[in-house]
Design a protein that fits this description.
The complex is a heterodimer. By secondary structure, chain A is of the alpha+beta class. Chain A is built from five helices and eight strands, in the order βββαβααβββαβα. Chain B is rod-shaped and about 45 Å long. The chains are: A alpha+beta, B mainly beta.
């Protein structure tokens, strides 16, 4: 089980968890007709490095006079949290018409996943008081969120913040997964 | 100045429950102890908004 903090800082932090975050898939306009497709994710975790978030916050909101905007971020990186029960059934993206792999949680694939021995996934169990069911992060799923959008909904959508040790574990595993080298399969 | 009038917002989703799970070892939805306090009982949903551009003559 991980440790979390429920106190809300004034700034966005690495490891923060927010609810009901929108991801814009596309915006199209044709002959005056506008179409916007978006996905609403029940929960996401902030993956952007905390030092970058500190610098952005300092320079964006502190009214310090700076020579340039070098420290400002365009967006923050987030990853969705999926309900682990839905995930093991392969049904966590069924509302998006996506059938995912079923993983038996009582056999090796699921057991390894719950011990975080599978590089693609990160399994999380929260303290009961937080009210989040066991969840899984799929490191193949991530997107960016506009900072102003996040700041505007921060007060109402903040859920909790994963404490430093556990958030570093998540982002370290995430960066290792992204940095993996895909070698061609060897034909014997 | 152009404005957009939202005339249709719809959930483009497949909301029916799929009951084709055969592996007995995989949890069924009935096993979920769904608590209304839990944030993660819902799944990601796609929403499509369609709007028409209105030319504001002012």
């Amino acid at each position: 089980m991980i440790r979390v903090k429920t106190s809300r800082k004034s700034r966005i932090s690495q490891g923060d968890i927010y609810k009901n975050i929108e991801y814009i898939e596309y915006v199209s306009e044709k002959s005056g007709n506008l179409e916007i497709s978006k996905i609403n994710f029940p929960l996401v975790i902030i993956l952007t490095q905390d030092c970058d978030l500190v610098q952005d916050y300092t320079y964006r909101w502190s009214r310090q006079q700076t020579q340039n905007n070098d420290k400002l971020l365009l967006s923050v990186l987030v990853a969705p949290l999926y309900n682990a029960e839905h995930f093991f059934q392969g049904e966590h993206l069924s509302e998006l018409d996506m059938q995912m792999e079923k993983i038996s949680k009582t056999r090796s694939p699921g057991k390894y996943l719950k011990k975080n021995d599978r590089p693609r996934y990160h399994y999380l169990e929260f303290p009961k008081a937080i009210g989040i069911v066991p969840s899984v992060i799929d490191f193949k799923h991530y997107f960016s969120v506009n900072l102003n959008y996040l700041r505007n909904i921060k007060k109402s959508n903040f859920v909790c913040s994963i404490s430093e040790l556990y958030r570093e574990d998540i982002t370290s595993r995430f960066s290792n997964f992204l940095a993996r080298i895909g070698l061609p399969e060897q034909k014997v | 100045m152009n404005q957009y009038e939202v005339f249709n917002e719809e959930y483009v989703s497949n909301s029916q429950t799929k009951s084709d799970i055969k592996d007995d070892e995989i949890s069924k939805p009935s096993e979920l102890e769904i608590d209304s306090k839990h944030y993660t009982t819902s799944k990601p949903k796609r929403i499509t908004i369609r709007a028409k551009l209105i030319h504001d003559k002012s």
